[in-house]
Write a structure and sequence with these properties.
By secondary structure, the chain is mainly α.
Length: 34
């Protein structure tokens, strides 16, 4: 694997985790963020 593939994979994983956390926080405590 070249460096670009590794970087893209890391970014993809981080984005997926961020989306999961965002959805969980929205569904879990709706009143929490505002």
């Amino acid at each position: 694997m070249n460096t670009l593939a590794v970087v893209l994979t890391c970014v993809d994983i981080v984005v997926c985790i961020a989306l999961i956390i965002l959805v969980m926080s929205q569904e879990g405590n709706d009143q929490g963020m505002g």
